[in-house]
Design brief:
Radius of gyration of chain B: 22 Å
Number of domains of chain B: 1
Structural class of chain A: mainly alpha
Strand order of the largest sheet of chain B: 3-2-1-4-5-6
Largest sheet of chain A: none
Largest interface: A-B, 49 and 61 residues
Order of helices and strands of chain A: HHHHHH
Oligomer: heterodimer
CATH class of chain B: Alpha Beta
CATH architecture of chain B: 3-Layer(aba) Sandwich
Largest sheet of chain B: 6 strands, parallel
Radius of gyration of chain A: 28 Å
Number of strands of chain A: 0
Number of strands of chain B: 6
Number of helices of chain B: 11
Distance between the termini of chain A: 14 Å
């Protein structure tokens, strides 16, 4: 056993144990750690955003750019300042201009990204050969893909009552969905256990020094 | 009281304790179940890096924070080591506020190991808020999007950034991602639009979301969670944190599967009698 002499490691270890204490029951130590996390994160994000975004992308090129000053940056500067008008009830309508810009740009970016990356490419990805010569595994896999896709799509077709052939296919779609939910659940379990392993490794290795990696 | 009746009344804290022990004991004793066998998904990740000629430039996006360090950090470190061993230049960017210190750590660790110099062989451009807007703007100009590196040095004075204008100069995009913004957005904004080959290392909870991208060829390789990281560590012949954690992982999984089975058996009489048992 080789206990860490690093104050930072001790603080991190005690905070980890404080959060884990919730597994026994809610308690003041857990609440303290939770509030500390929220406060420190907020402070960290404000400082990081100032030095990573506001200063290099806006203030420096606008006020310290010399001959290369980009005066167009006055527009985002003004729009950014207008967002703070929400703190003043009488003038909070001014922030709507900035919010309108954000609402206009982001959906457009996401829709075009989704259209290109998901919609078109994913449809393209399902156009697979249903007979792969000399590779029965690929043939079966492609059939499962196409049948699973069509059955699942039919399950989400609500314009006609799910009866007869339509009902049977929709039922098959449910089975495919169940398999995907099961896979997602398995991966979720793996993710949560991994997080626990990471914290335990930290406690045993970095803090207590009883684990050698 | 029958076994199943007592199981129905079991305090869940006993299960937490059992999971805790199943994680701690294998780590302390070095208990080993089975070797890690790389999957085709991990091999795709490995091959995509192996195929790159020495001297090419890649973007390494470290979009995660300490919340998923156990899953993302081992794959981030292994990928950085692999890239540096292959003498590939790295431009690191992060779209998670908590990402930059972690990216610094892997870059400096692997850089010291393979004698790669900061600024010459790799650079960490740091964090930028804006999610998809950042990715999209990088397609127009990486130096305009990231005018300085993480320490404030203008990119015009960083040798590794010389000649890098946008994704045209990038041979591979390596995304280490914990969620939004991450792999999905890189595929949507960059792979589809600029046709940059891409590999991804993601948290297990989000991995099923990316299988369609892999199947459609939008991703060349995929590492899912700690298991994916361990497979990749095996391929690069550098077993690390992920490989070490896999035995604890397997034992915990067996226990949880057993608990699910027993839980269902225990509640079966209740369900068959409409909850009156």
């Amino acid at each position: 056993m080789h206990l860490s002499g690093d104050l930072g490691i001790w603080i991190a270890a005690l905070l980890t144990l404080g959060i884990f204490s919730f597994l026994y029951k809610d308690n003041p130590a857990y609440k303290l750690c939770e509030h500390l996390f929220v406060g420190v994160s907020a402070g960290y994000y404000v400082v990081l955003n100032y030095f990573s975004v506001v200063k290099p992308n806006l203030l420096d090129p606008l006020f310290h750019g010399g001959a290369h000053t980009d005066f167009l940056l006055v527009v985002p500067l003004v729009l950014g300042i207008l967002l703070f008008s929400r703190f003043f009830p009488k003038g909070d309508w001014l922030s709507r201009w900035s919010i309108a810009l954000i609402l206009g740009v982001y959906p457009a970016l996401r829709i075009t990204g989704f259209g290109q990356g998901d919609f078109v490419e994913q449809i393209h990805g399902t156009m697979v050969p249903l007979w792969v010569a000399g590779n029965p595994g690929a043939t079966i896999g492609n059939w499962i893909l196409v049948v699973g896709l069509l059955a699942t799509l039919i399950f989400f077709f609500f314009s006609k009552e799910h009866k007869g052939a339509l009902g049977g296919t929709a039922r098959l779609g449910v089975y495919f969905l169940m398999v995907s939910f099961g896979a997602s659940y398995g991966y979720t379990v793996m993710a949560r256990i991994s997080l626990l392993i990471g914290r335990v490794m930290f406690l045993l290795h970095d803090w207590l020094g009883v684990l050698h990696l | 009281m029958s076994f199943f009746a007592s199981l129905r009344r079991l305090d869940r804290r006993w299960i937490f304790l059992a999971i805790g022990l199943l994680v701690v004991v294998p780590l302390l004793t070095g208990f080993h179940i089975a070797p890690v066998l790389p999957s085709a998904r991990a091999r795709g990740f490995y091959d995509a890096i192996e195929k790159l000629p020495a001297g090419s430039t890649v973007v390494l996006a470290g979009d995660y924070d300490p919340g998923t360090i156990a899953e993302n950090y081992p794959m981030h470190l292994a990928a950085t080591r692999h890239l540096m061993a292959r003498k590939i230049k790295i431009i690191a960017v992060e779209l998670y506020p908590g990402g930059p210190p972690l990216a610094d750590r892997v870059l400096h660790l692997a850089g010291a190991e393979f004698d790669r110099k900061e600024g010459v062989d790799y650079v960490n451009l740091g964090y930028k808020s804006g999610n998809e807007a950042v990715m999209s703007q990088m397609g127009s100009s990486i130096p305009v999007t990231f005018p300085t590196d993480r320490s404030g040095t203008p990119v015009s004075r960083i040798p590794v950034m010389k000649g890098v204008e946008n994704f045209s100069q990038i041979k591979l995009l390596v995304s280490i991602s914990a969620g939004y913004p991450g792999t999905k957005e890189w595929v949507q904004q960059v792979v589809s639009r600029y046709h940059v080959p891409m590999v991804a290392g993601v948290t297990a909870v989000s991995a099923p979301e990316y299988y369609p991208y892999l199947q459609a060829g939008q991703l060349q390789g995929l590492l899912g969670g700690m298991a994916g990281a361990a497979e990749y560590e095996t391929l690069v012949k550098a077993p690390g944190l992920a490989t070490r954690g896999m035995d604890a992982q397997s034992l915990a999984h067996v226990f949880i599967a057993l608990m699910i089975l027993l839980g269902n058996l225990a509640t079966l009489p209740q369900r068959s009698s409409g909850g009156k048992a």
